[in-house]
Amino acid sequence: MTAQALDAPAGRRARRRRPIRFSTKKLVCAVLAYIVALIFLVPYAEMVVAAARPKDQLTDPTILPSHFDWSNFKTLWSTGLGRNLQVSLEVAGGATLLVLLVALPAAYYTARQQFRGRTAFLLLVLVTQMFQPTAMLVGIYKEFSSFGLTDSVFGLILVNAGFNMAFATWILNAYFSSIPVELEEAAMVDGTGRLGALLRITLPLAWPGVVTALIFTFISAWNELVIALILTTTPSKQPLTVALDSYIGGYQIDWGHLFAASAIATIPVIVLFAAIERKVVGGLTAGSIK
Amino acid sequence: MKRSFVASAAICAVAGLVLSGCGSSGNNGEAANGDITLTFLGADYGTGPADSSTAYWQKVAADFHKANPKITVKVSTINWNDYDTKVKTQLQNKDYPDILQGEFFPQYATDHLLAPLSDVMTNPDAGLAVFKDGFSVGGVQYGIPFDTSARALFYNKLAFTDAGITNPPTTWDELKTDAGKLKAKGYIGYALPLGPEEAQAESYLWMLGNGGGWQNSSGKYAINSAENIETFQFLKGLVDAGDTEPNPATYDRTADSATAFAQGKVGMESNGPFLTATIAAAGKLTTSDYAAVPMPGKTGPLTQTLGVADALQVFKGSATKLAAVKKFLDFALNDDNQLAWAKKYALLPGTQSAAAKLENDPILGAFVKALPNTVLYPSDSNWTATVLPAIKKSIGTAVTGDPSKVLGQLQDLATSGS
Amino acid sequence: MAETVTARTFSRRRSLAPLLWLGPALVLILLVVLTPVFIMLRTAFRNIDAIGFDHGWAGWRNFRQVFHEPDLHAVLLRTVWWVVAVVVITMVFSLALAALFNQTFPGRRVARWALIAPWAASVFMTAVVFRWMLQPGSGLINVLMHRFGLLDKIGDNASHADWLGRPEAAFWWMIAVAVFVSIPFTTYALLAGLQTIPPEVYEAARVDGSSTMRSYVSITLPLLRPALTVATLINIMNVFNSFPIIWEMTRGGPGDQTATTTVFMYQIKAQSIPEAAAMSVVNFGFVIVIVLVFLKASRWKEQVS
Known about the structure:
Strand content of chain B: 15-25%
Low-confidence stretches of chain A: 1-17, 282-290
CATH superfamily of the largest domain in chain B: Periplasmic binding protein-like II
Number of domains of chain B: 2
Structural class of chain A: mainly alpha
Largest interface: A-C, 104 and 96 residues
CATH topology of the largest domain in chain B: D-Maltodextrin-Binding Protein, domain 2
Shape of chain B: globular
Radius of gyration of chain B: 24 Å
Number of domains of chain A: 2
CATH superfamily of the largest domain in chain A: MetI-like
Radius of gyration of chain A: 24 Å
Number of strands of chain A: 0
Strand content of chain A: under 5%
CATH class of the largest domain in chain B: Alpha Beta
Mean pLDDT of chain B: 90
Distance between the termini of chain A: 6 Å
Oligomer: heterotrimer
Largest sheet of chain B: 6 strands, mixed
């Protein structure tokens, strides 16, 4: 295992040095991939186009309007959307941090130790993933209002962390299990404690798993709507999803602002992903060094 | 084994804590120095943060606080689409606001949770008389109409000219003929929103045109009466002929028919005054491009249309608190505030005096005049709890399936509980 | 003396150690997930009226009501159909896409970013935008289909273009949207799996003279199995619990003809709170059965040990 791992980077480096050949296969792959990418972007491009349609062309049967009107994107900010954006960032960021703090030790321990209740714990975690939050709204409201955690960023952090911990624990557990325990033991022989070995040896190797868990948690907390609707009432304490939902009013729907705000809401996630994706890919290749 | 016991004990402990510790937080909003805080929970009639009802109520509360520095009103509102879920969740947890605006829940009065209106308003008869019975339980009025609406037939004059129609229809047959002509020009002849949003309103308007309704003259449910079945058979004929949008059961008022009308794609539809706000926001039709007339009936226009009112209701509290509420309601329901609200959302006022001032309004006037003579939804508790959700969910399938079967099932449901 | 103390603290530490490492996770699960679940379970056995007043113990009455719902049978069948269709189609597409995006080609990174868009956007908004694009008179999908001659006529009263109004067509479109939003995560999970396969394995196969297709089936798929199993499992649970797609696109209508059990539960909630709680319990049992069937079929135990 170790011997093979040592060969791998050398082999890859050798391949990488080869000049790019424009083979037919590469061309076909590229074209196919671009088409797929395009298909996946269409709904979100349409979101932007619909937001930029001049009012009187909102439902014209055309692919693009005769001209674009970007005023919806500008008028959004005067209504406090910036504040909602901030709440969303706090909630998603806080939930991600909390999930990592809670899931990392649990995943590490279950991956490294055999103990009574290990399987039970992993199954319990899995089971939490099977509940539909919409079915539990009354209970969640009851509990959080009795703790005074309505209209609170901390309350939303707790809920989102609770519902996303399962996935993070499982994926981290899988990654930790795939890292040979010998590496850690070697470090511990050198005088590093268990925690030190975890932080210095294991965690860097499990990085792709950490990043995947992080992205997953961030995105799902960022997009959570149903519970935030129940737990928040003050506009300045509401995350972006709830603010978005208000454009679908009881008497009118403000399609232009709805789509403009949605487009804006997806940008931070794409930026986060773009910033971190290189690390995922880098980490993923590192993960193959077993 | 031991651990799982500890775990389940812990679960029970926490759950028990939550179950017992819930409810009122102990603070009833009255401070020792005589300051009072009232909580107000209302529906949000706006579209997006820019015209949210929170802003309206915050201004009213601030103005009120200036005149009454001892009383603070804490305002929160909920999007109408989430109103039901959130209010029920909150009230189910015994988390009552002092003042609740929006739907009137007769059960709260039956369960002795509401204060009689005479305790919380100086003039409990200020509201429009037609809505009084609907907001009363056992002869005592518990809610005051805060805002109201009446329905009419909106038609697009440009579309009518396009299709060569000179006068709006007054009977079902005329409506069918006109819808056919409009359809030939590519319009939706008559937009029929029987989707879950407000199928009860659309259905009712048609039932009224044939002398039917949800209940018969003695107040018993008669959803599958011969008149109603005939009404839905007529509607089924309209749908089959392509005179409406193709699938009414999934077609909603706000998302579909109002949007389409405002974009000039609909010939006729029934709607409330608030449609004028949607049309103005869309910027496609001017006020002279459309008009509203009484809804056609089978043989002639409706003499009584559907009226809808949203209520203000007050939960019981100490005498000091109710006195504060009384001051606030007197202020919140003054004509200036009522008219500001009506203008803001193109709705009608709930009080007689404010309504009188709007009778000559170029847009809302005609609707205001129809108000005193409107008919209302049933007001028994079975309606809101059981019948209404079932109507919303399934009555739209009557125009594509078998009307007598669908209406029969609803009738069974309405009469089984009582 | 010193020795025994160390031994004792050690053994005590050993028995307490799991709690130390797992404690925070257990507390979070207990507080956020299990307590509301407990309240839900309790609600399912109470007699609670439409506005939330509790009139005492109801025994199994709420469950009997659920099982007497005339449409329950159809909804359950539709849910199985929904889960199987969405998960199978998602897995097939994701396998193909993961293989494609694992190749090197210019612009691969940008193409990968595009792929995550449905994951980054909220499912709720994706559903709203698809509903918008399927509007019979002006939706982009209909406009494009019309231009390419796939649709005879568009317009607000064109019945063929009103996909979401017809239960069968609507259901297929919603399956498509569910697949669309499930693909990014699944593809990335499989991509991660693919990249852990050492290239040497393929080189060995190439020396043997295996074709690309054969080496894919005989080498890649077996090595991908752990990733496939986990991705499928997560998809099954997510798709089963999926609520916003159907709710935003059809509200489960007309009637409940496009509702899955999750949406059906929400529809029931408008009429009876405890019956909806009972339906949630039924849902939970149902998803466990589906997961167990899957785990048995995929011989998960063998893989783990």
